[in-house]
Amino acid sequence: MNATIELLKSHRSIRKFTEQKIPHELLLELVRAGQSAATSSHVQAYSVIHVKNPTNRQKIAELAGGQAYVADASDFLVFCADMKRPTEASERTGANVVRGMTEQLLVASVDTALMAQNVAVAAESEGLGICYIGGIRNNPQAVSDLLHLPEHVYPVFGMCIGYPAQTPDIKPRLPVEAILKEDVYDDDQQQVAAFDDTMHRYYRERSGGNKDADWSHNLTPLFDTKLRPHMRDFLIERGFEMK
Prior knowledge:
It is a single chain. The protein has twelve helices and four strands. By secondary structure, the protein is of the alpha+beta class. The protein folds into two domains: 178 residues, NADH Oxidase; 42 residues, no CATH class. It has a four-stranded antiparallel β-sheet, sandwiched between helices. It is globular, with a radius of gyration of 20 Å.
């Protein structure tokens, strides 16, 4: 495999960082690399908030569920889906802009995710570690208020970036046979069962035998409750009406 593929396959989330700071020019280069990601119709429907204020970093760490590494990492970025910039640009040309379409929400969210993943890969290529923080959607309105996000902009996730102070094992992924379908969708229960065995061994080894779980059981908290039920109303309030 070439170096790029090996880098991609070596990803792991980093939650402990050294005190070394990322040079500002390097951080700018990471964001520029993010901007080179594919973007639907060249809309570039994202904005990135570099949260430098220590007090705000600590508040976000608490709002995200007490994730201390939000405050401890060298840098913390909040990736926002942004339909304000492109719709206003179109409006300035005289267009009769229609806002609040579901497709606009999808385009902005996908654009943001693609851009962020480019940043993540660029960071890891420089020996940095990253951790996505979806927990900011636990309290998206409070995060939006803290960052002064306007209408038609919403925080999708955060990202800790810094120099790693740990080397965790790479977490196994589903077998490619479960993901890659030929021509049509087919059932993959056999592959899932095998993956449950793989993850059971992984958790037992990583925890010294203290964690008795597998992939399917770990999914239970995500699907046996209404996860973040506030998000629909929040998005509508942001101007993403999903029409």
